[in-house]
Amino acid sequence: MNRNIVYVFTGTGNSLKVAKDIAAALVDCDIVSMGSNTQYDLMEGHKTIGFVLPTYYRGEPRKVTEFISRLNLEHNKNAYYYTVVTAGKYDGNTLCHIKKLLKRKGIALSYGKMLDMFSNYVVSYDMKDTVKEETKKSEIDFEPILKSIKNRESNQIPEIELLQEIAYRALIPLIPEMDEYYSVSDDCIKCGICEIVCPVGNIGLDDVGRPYFNHHCEQCMACIQFCPKRAINYKDRTQNRRRYTHPDIKYTDLAALNGNADSKIGSSSKLFSSDRKKSSSSIVAKLMAKAIWKIYGL
Q: What pTM did the predictor assign?
């Protein structure tokens, strides 16, 4: 075996677009989800191993931390390792975190870069009407990054910024239950798209095909952004705000990445129970979340 592999986490398609471009440039390259994939043993013989992911709350998504921590890279320590972080202007400590996760495995992160892409955290703000312009700029900015990866170049990964780290550590544990504030309006047509685009299987469909949320959310915005009827919303904030998914990525691309390519749209399969008991730690986290979300205006 003499292949390449790029691991990706994506919600609205920005990171998947980057992963696809890398795979096309490297050739003989697999794209694997860090959200839905459960294969943690990587066979030997890979030339390059990449991680492409977005920044959430000044760091990586919780699922990415879990995935890389469990990933067995023992047979590929001599591969070229790189990371591309997609972010809206600022990537926080994400690159530092990935570097540390790999270092614990005895692996050096050779190259890491942030790519500024269209910012789309719709629960916090209305998005700009500049998708075309910002997408074009991202494509231009990505060219030297892709060239560096193809040439297996190295660079200096920035050090941890303390204040950003404090914010990340305080906020990231509270993310899973933010879906408590999601609502599904009567505009829902029970298409099931939300279920298959969710990268972590947080969405199930009830007996009539309406979505419910299982409280291990990553706040990736896939369900809100890909809903064809804008039926999924956060509190009363997002109903009249713009929607965004990467122009080159369709919901079927995310479904395939998540292993749901053959899923029947509109099925009412239940992957999880929506009636789980709340733990004491869950209750405490929720109280803390309410206080912090109020400060952040969420």
A: 0.88
Listed by start position, the domains of the chain span 3-160, 169-296
**Which residue pairs, CB below 8 angstroms and at least 24 apart, start in 19-23?**
19/50, 19/52, 20/248, 21/142, 21/146, 22/50, 22/52, 22/84, 22/146, 22/149
Q: Nearest CA to 94 among 135, 61, 129? A: 61
Helix residue ranges per DSSP H, 52-185 = 62-70, 94-103, 131-150, 162-171
Chain center to CA of 127: 18
DSSP 49: E
Q: Which CATH superfamily is domain 3-160 in?
A: Flavodoxin domain (3.40.50.360)
pLDDT, one tens digit per residue, over 64-77 is 999 999 999 999 99
Question: Residue with structure tokens 């709350």?
Answer: 57
